[in-house]
Amino acid sequence: MKPFLLLASRAEDEAAEDEYRAYLRYGGLEPGQLHRVRMEAGPLLELELSRYSGVIVGGSPFTSSDPSEHKTDTQHRVERELAALLDRVVAEDFPFLGACYGVGTLGRHQGAVIDRTYGEGLGGVTIKLTEEGLVDPLLRGLPESFTAFTGHKEACTVLPAHAVLLASSAACPVHMFRIKTNLYATQFHPELDAEGLITRIDIYRHAGYFPPESAEMLMEDARQFAATEPMKILRNFVERYAS
């Protein structure tokens, strides 16, 4: 089997390793089957897509809708490199799954309006599938409604006309969409369980997602949710596109 490619951009080693282990575990992959590139660490080298079964973009501390002058040089570089890669991925309809940051990257690349209108705090939310979502192969085996973990400052306000809306929540109308046949983005985290969320709350308590003094309460709240259904998306992605 060709490996999958995980494009990560978390600078904190603990968060980066926890994310990588989650994609391995819930994707049913061995380390040799998931090639990770930490984009924040240095320039993205030229990628030969034919070497991979599919591309996954993990979550990120970067907020794509921030004003340009507020972005670091590293964020500008990562955004340029992802945009160039998406030019190729979209043209080929190459298997792609972007989690959280995928909405800000694939969405903006395809003309979506991404802003802070529908941001959601860290915690569990109820995701509801659309009619199209109920029959989409990447959502095979998921119920119409399920719990997933979120935590995002920005979201999609307006989808481009050629995108297919697959899932929403009460507070965020675009939680998952598809472009063409094989290009997907989720706003929720399909790799994230309660312990993973607790780890991120601890790591990002001073990152502006929530008041730092509320971290312990958020950790306790996370323990009240069981998010088990979203992980099926990762397994479905792997099973569908492994080549």
From TrEMBL:
<protein>
    <submittedName>
        <fullName>Glutamine amidotransferase</fullName>
    </submittedName>
</protein>
<keyword id="KW-0315">Glutamine amidotransferase</keyword>
<feature type="domain" description="Glutamine amidotransferase">
    <location>
        <begin position="46"/>
        <end position="192"/>
    </location>
</feature>
<dbReference type="InterPro" id="IPR044992">
    <property type="entry name" value="ChyE-like"/>
</dbReference>
<dbReference type="InterPro" id="IPR017926">
    <property type="entry name" value="GATASE"/>
</dbReference>
<dbReference type="Pfam" id="PF00117">
    <property type="entry name" value="GATase"/>
</dbReference>
<dbReference type="InterPro" id="IPR029062">
    <property type="entry name" value="Class_I_gatase-like"/>
</dbReference>
